[in-house]
Amino acid sequence: MSDTPAPKFLGANTALPASPEEAELDYVPNPRTGQLYMVRFAAPEFTSLCPVTGQPDFAHLVIDYAPGETIVESKSLKLFLGSFRNHCGFHEDVTVGIGQRLFDEMQPQWLRIGGYWYPRGGIPIDVFWQSGAPPAALWLPDQGVSSYRGRG
Length: 152
Hints:
Enzyme class: oxidoreductase
Family: Belongs to the GTP cyclohydrolase I family. QueF type 1 subfamily.
Strand content: 25-35%
Strand order of the largest sheet: 2-3-5-6
Oligomer: single chain
Mean pLDDT: 93
Number of strands: 6
Distance between the termini: 56 Å
Helix content: 10-25%
Protein name: NADPH-dependent 7-cyano-7-deazaguanine reductase
Low-confidence stretches: none
CATH architecture: 2-Layer Sandwich
Active site: 50, 57
Order of helices and strands: EEEEHHEE
Number of domains: 1
Shape: globular
GO molecular function: preQ1 synthase activity
């Protein structure tokens, strides 16, 4: 038997946290410690609320990271991202805040987040943050999300 605690949310019926502050991210040991590799999470239907109007904002988030000692458990990440549905925040604050929280808590070798926001007031806003320069030998594929071009 392993001394590693089981993931907190995996396999459990779990309610969506009321806010990002209440959301608990769960980290598990990196199964490939010492290997340089990249993990990508895509959340193509991310939502939060405009802090001025309270109307919903929609984004396609792409989170890439090179794990250190731990990896983020995907269900806890899904619950964390879902907790933004009733959270008011500007695109910049939401995108950078998600990246910084993951980086601060998980302590990966490197992390980047791309927030590809759909237009608000006729202007799409894309927000990008990374923790620093990526490791030299890390393969970094393009995030694969085109800039917003409307209907054609």
